Amino acid sequence: MAEHNFIEPSAVREAMGVPRQMLLAKITASGLDFLESDGGLGAILNVVTVRFEAETLRALLSEKIQAANIPQADKDTLLSKLQTFSSDILKAIIVKLIEKGIEKPEQLAKLVEMIWKM
């Protein structure tokens, strides 16, 4: 527990030939958060926000359209429409894609595993 900063040892006994013993310890803020069922204050403070610029989303979607196994005329139409989308529409598309990924957890798991290996 001390190695994870959940407690701070305050009294330790060390003797030759005897394993080290912690006699007194004080719980830390991290330790209290760990005990909370909702993650405590750490769950609130350690939130990570991910933001994508509209052009980054557009480039990502364009790349996937180009790689799609569909007729070139359809690709051209999709790419043309993609250029007209506002940032809000692009964000909505990405949210829908994420939702679709979550609906098929086995595919989401494969994606996470693939990214993890990179």
Give an account of the 3D structure.
The protein has 118 residues and is an alpha+beta fold. The chain has six helices and two strands; from the N terminus they run ββαααααα. A two-stranded antiparallel sheet has the order 1-2. The mean pLDDT is 84.
Précis, in short:
The protein is an alpha+beta fold and 118 residues long. It has helices at residues 29-35, 40-45, 54-67, 72-84, 87-103, 105-117, and strands at 7-15, 18-27.
Mean pLDDT: 84
Helix content: 55-70%
- The strand count comes to 2
Oligomer: single chain
The main β sheet shows up as: 2 strands, antiparallel
Question: Could you name the key traits of this structure?
Answer:
single chain, 118 residues, alpha+beta
Describe how the helices and strands are arranged.
Layout: E1 7-15, E2 18-27, H1 29-35, H2 40-45, H3 54-67, H4 72-84, H5 87-103, H6 105-117
Helix pairs in contact: 3-4, 3-5
